[in-house]
């Protein structure tokens, strides 16, 4: 696997590294690629999440914590210079296989360090019953990207204060607070953060590609989209129907439907679920101008939903839209 390196060690805004993933995925295709990065205090939330539901904006402003949106699904994450972000880019397009392979690689590295880690849930790596790594998936034509956290250490006060998960989400994980659910890798190893990064790179990668000035300029061009207020905050119009639903092993959903004479005119599906297909063209647009009844909705949708929303069954999806 190729380690993608930057020509300097300066710390950049988080969207730069997301843009770097896209650039690498589109331009370096001779092998799987991997790189690590760190950011100043930042909250990153998923593509389909409403920022006001997930982020304590007042706390973030007061404590100078950046907030950015990513293009992958999944939940909200706090990151700072004491923990590490991993990015893995591969040709394989099978979501389950890609996720499992990546998580297995990381778990094996932790095992080689003597850490008793294991995979859990949709996207987590655990030490005992506590989470040390959460990961998300993003697909572009011909390439797949998995990115996630590795909690070597972190500012727990900022993590708890900046993210506002719902009570239902906390209960589903069997914990009473975010703090109780988190493991810090530093408590399970004698390695410094720098030694840990070197260990991971040595064990996962056998080649290096150093990006040059031309590469950096191209990445910064991609980064511009991530920095726009429209992308960060999204469009949040009022809807005539709004309800929430949690489906085990799929995620949390915030359903918003605009109706006229019981016909769907607009639909938006927010949440921390994982997208593995084109939800806009295969689900949302086909629902426009469809009567809000089970038969009409069922006919308008493809036979399978789980290749668009990970682990989602079609009947569950249709019933979710119709709930009040």
Describe it.
The chain is globular. The protein has two domains: 232 residues, BirA Bifunctional Protein, domain 2; 82 residues, Enolase-like, domain 1, CATH 3.30.390. The strands form three sheets. The protein has an eight-stranded mixed sheet with strand order 7-8-9-10-6-2-1-11, with helices on both faces. It has a three-stranded mixed sheet with strand order 4-3-5. By secondary structure, it is α+β, with helices and mostly antiparallel strands. The protein has twelve helices and 14 strands.
Q: How would the blueprint of this fold be written?
A:
Elements: E1 2-5, H1 14-27, E2 33-37, E3 42-45, H2 51-54, H3 57-62, E4 66-69, E5 77-79, E6 84-90, H4 95-112, E7 117-120, E8 124-127, E9 130-140, E10 143-150, H5 156-162, H6 167-172, H7 193-204, E11 207-210, H8 213-226, H9 229-233, E12 241-247, E13 251-260, E14 263-271, H10 279-284, H11 294-300, H12 314-322
Parallel strand pairs: 1-2, 1-11, 3-4
Antiparallel strand pairs: 2-6, 3-5, 6-10, 7-8, 8-9, 9-10, 12-13, 13-14
Helix pairs in contact: 1-8
- Unreliable stretches covering 5 or more consecutive residues: none
Q: What's the number of helices?
A: 12
Major beta sheet summary: 8 strands, mixed
The CATH architecture term of the largest domain is 2-Layer Sandwich
Q: Find the count of extended strands (DSSP E, 2+ residues).
A: 14
Descriptors for this entry?
Enolase-like, domain 1; three-stranded mixed beta sheet; 2 domains; eight-stranded mixed beta sheet; 324 residues; alpha+beta; BirA Bifunctional Protein, domain 2; globular
């Amino acid at each position: 696997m190729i380690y993608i390196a930057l020509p300097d060690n300066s710390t950049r805004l988080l969207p730069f590294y997301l843009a770097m993933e896209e650039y690498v995925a589109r331009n370096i295709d001779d092998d799987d690629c991997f790189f690590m990065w760190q950011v100043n205090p930042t909250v990153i939330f998923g593509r389909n999440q409403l920022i006001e539901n997930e982020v304590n904006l007042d706390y973030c402003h007061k404590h100078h914590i950046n907030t950015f949106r990513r293009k992958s699904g999944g939940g909200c994450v706090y990151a700072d210079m004491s923990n590490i972000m991993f990015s893995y880019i591969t040709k394989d397009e099978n979501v389950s296989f890609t996720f499992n392979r990546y998580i297995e690689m990381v778990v094996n590295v932790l095992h080689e360090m003597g850490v008793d880690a294991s995979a859990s849930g949709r996207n987590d790596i655990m030490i005992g019953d506590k989470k040390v790594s959460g990961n998300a998936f993003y697909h572009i034509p011909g390439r797949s990207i998995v990115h996630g956290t590795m909690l070597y250490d972190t500012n727990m006060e900022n993590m708890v204060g900046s993210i506002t998960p719902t009570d239902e989400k906390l209960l589903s994980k069997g914990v009473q607070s975010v703090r109780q659910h988190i493991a810090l890798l530093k408590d399970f190893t004698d390695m410094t953060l720098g030694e840990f990064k070197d260990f991971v790179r040595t064990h996962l990668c056998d080649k290096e590609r150093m990006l040059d000035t031309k590469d950096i300029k191209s990445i910064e061009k991609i980064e511009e989209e991530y920095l726009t207020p429209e992308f960060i905050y999204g469009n949040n119009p009022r809807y005539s129907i709004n309800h929430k639903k949690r489906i085990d092993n799929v995620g949390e959903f915030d359903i918003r439907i605009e109706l006229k004479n019981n016909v769907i005119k607009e639909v938006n599906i927010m949440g921390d679920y994982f997208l593995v297909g084109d939800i806009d063209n295969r689900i949302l647009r086909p629902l426009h101008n469809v009567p809000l009844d089970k038969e009409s909705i069922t006919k308008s949708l493809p036979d399978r939903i789980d290749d668009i929303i990970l682990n989602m069954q079609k009947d569950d999806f249709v019933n979710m839209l119709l709930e009040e």
